[in-house]
Design brief:
Among the domains are: 152 residues, no CATH class; 57 residues, no CATH class. The strands form nine sheets. It has a three-stranded antiparallel β-sheet, with no helix packed on it. A three-stranded antiparallel β-sheet has the order 17-18-19. A two-stranded antiparallel sheet has the order 2-6. The protein is of the alpha+beta class and 583 residues long. The two termini are 66 Å apart.
């Protein structure tokens, strides 16, 4: 027989709750106040402050007592009663539970039919959902734990009963919730996923996605180039309930809400006033949930996807696009597919000012007619400073001779800053694919967070490799504590005018050096600049003697096997140190 031992303090709390419940569950008879009270001018909690002295107060108790109570004054006294008796009072607000409270649901829960106060406190409690005891113990108030364990294939006393059962009653046998059930759960084959229990401890046969893959190994296509991160990391149960759910495929939430839990940046646009209407039906109209052979797990090429709703031959669509041939333009060159606060889905990462003002700044009568014949000459009419940089750069960017401005920049709008056509380093990797990280390698976050232009000048510059600064000075612009500026919002401002916000700002790794920026990383007194002479306290590999000490000696600038981008193919700090100090 399962037993529970309650402390005197907890018993006292139960007694107080029981006294309060006696008012709620009675027949609505009035309780007398000692003096005349006007409810319109009196704050009840002045005397009844214990009502709100709980972690989870009942909103009506906190907002307006008259939601549930009635006051009657007679012969110099005030009587206080309830609007309705029993569950009828609760159903005045919680009408969605009417069938459960009246027993009309297929499988009713007896305490719910008897009295809401069996499980819930009238004015509030210290427990979630205003339960009179902790959620994990509420069912054990009526159900013996030993009997409950015996009625299930595996011990369940450590679990929250609400994981599988509806607390107020259900249309399903045993008050089970949901209409979608995992086949092993439906069949009672718990051993398909669980080991033989040790006492009351229930364990899985395997951890993470390995367990799911035993049956669902075909969910992610091995040949697909892009696999959902949640699947790669074995986080299947973040989207799917392993037992049962109210939605198809055991999904934990509806439509895009499930996706938005990991993609809040998209949620902000998708729920805003300029949201793409297609998202009302969920994200799976454009994206595969598990894997795809296209970027962003798209179901088809971008323009083909757009064409399923927007006919490229539609004359109204062509008119809105200044007569352009809709079969030859890239929709994402101007539009954000999730939503935008700028005109109809116009990407507002950056918008070309002439485009915002009107097409006639660059175009003639139609989209095909460009001022000045188009090409770079058109761009240089406004951006003559860029043209001068290209022409006079000591180290020119060869792409400036072979490509046009619109190969890298959208002439209208972009989800990226500077009207760039792609995010991060994607744009540059079209030409510099040899700089992309190999399989399993970590990529420099400057590339994925900002782009190659965080370190390199894209149009030409004075330094080798088009670097914004030379040597350690370039790295210090992002990683030196005394140089990086952090504002009161937590935003981090880096050299070059770049800004990191939110999680990226918190994840940025910064170091401290001596006032002359010569030493103290990665350990005190360790030099970060100067010539390596091999005369220090620790022996240095002979091949390094005579070399200049810089950040590049220990860290790769683009990608490496370790998350800290260690050189020498080192995967951890120890391997790196041994590469330079073999003894």
């Amino acid at each position: 027989m399962g037993t529970h031992h309650r402390s005197p303090h907890r018993f006292g709390l139960y007694l107080i709750i029981a006294m309060a419940l006696s008012m709620v569950t009675g027949n609505g008879s009035a309780a007398d106040h000692p003096t005349l009270v006007n409810p319109e001018t009196t704050t009840c909690v002045t005397c009844h402050d214990e009502v709100l002295a709980v972690r989870v107060p009942h909103p009506p108790a906190a907002d307006d007592c008259l939601t549930c109570h009635v006051f009657e004054a007679s012969e110099g006294e005030t009587s206080v009663g309830l609007m309705e008796s029993g569950s009828a009072l609760c159903l005045a607000c919680h009408d969605g539970l009417a069938a459960a409270a009246t027993g009309e649901i297929a499988v009713p829960h007896a305490p719910v039919v008897d009295d809401c106060g069996t499980c819930h406190g009238a004015h509030g409690t210290d427990f979630d959902a205003m339960l009179v005891v902790e959620p994990a113990l509420i069912c054990a108030e009526c159900h013996d734990l030993d009997d409950t364990d015996a009625a299930h294939p595996l011990p369940v006393r450590r679990a929250d009963c609400r994981t599988c059962h509806e607390a107020h009653g259900s249309k399903n046998a045993h008050m089970l919730r949901g209409s979608s059930r995992h086949v092993p759960f439906e069949e009672g084959s718990c051993d398909a996923c669980h080991r033989t229990p040790r006492g009351t401890r229930v364990r899985l046969l395997q951890e993470g996605g390995a367990l799911c893959e035993a049956c669902h190994g075909d969910i992610a296509n091995d040949g697909d180039a892009v696999v959902h991160t949640a699947i790669k990391q074995g986080r299947c149960v973040e989207c799917h309930d392993p037992h049962l759910a109210d939605r198809p495929h055991l999904l934990k939430a509806d439509g895009g809400e499930l996706c938005f839990s990991c993609h809040p940046d998209i949620a902000e646009r998708a729920k805003g006033p300029g949201a793409h209407a297609a998202l009302e039906d969920g994200c799976d109209g454009c994206h595969d949930a598990h894997s795809s052979d296209r970027p962003a797990m798209l179901l088809d090429d971008v323009d083909e996807l757009c064409g399923t709703c927007h006919d490229s031959a539609d004359p109204d669509l062509r008119r809105l696009h200044f007569g352009a041939d809709m079969t030859t333009i890239r929709c994402l060159g101007c539009h954000d597919p999730h939503g935008s606060s700028s005109m109809p889905l116009i990407a507002n990462g950056s918008i070309h000012p002439p485009f915002r003002e009107g097409c006639s700044n660059c175009h003639g009568a139609t989209a095909q007619e460009l001022e000045g014949g188009g090409g770079n000459a058109l761009c240089e009419m406004c951006h003559d400073d860029v043209a001068e940089t290209i022409a006079t750069a000591a180290v020119p960017h060869p792409a400036m001779e072979a490509m046009e401005c619109v190969d890298c920049h959208s002439p209208h709008a972009s989800r990226q800053p500077k009207l760039l056509r792609a995010a991060g380093g994607e744009l540059c990797l079209d030409c510099h694919e040899d700089q992309a990280g190999g399989e399993g390698e970590s990529v420099h976050r400057a590339i994925s967070w900002i782009g190659c232009h965080s370190c390199h000048l894209p149009h030409g510059g004075p330094s080798e490799n088009l670097l914004r600064a030379s040597g350690n000075d370039l790295c210090n612009g992002c990683h030196l504590k005394n140089r990086v500026k952090v504002d009161r919002n937590g935003d981090v401002r880096l050299d070059g005018g770049f800004v990191l916000r939110g999680e990226r700002a918190r994840e940025l790794e910064m170091i401290g050096l001596d006032p002359f920026l010569r030493k103290n990383h990665p350990i005190p007194e360790h030099p970060v600049t100067g010539m390596i002479d091999g005369k220090g306290r620790t022996e240095v590999a002979k091949s390094l003697v005579g070399q200049e000490m810089t950040c590049r000696l220990c860290h790769e600038p683009h990608a490496a096997a370790s998350s800290k981008l260690f050189t020498w193919k080192a995967t951890n700090q120890a391997e790196l140190c041994i590469a330079c100090h073999p003894k």
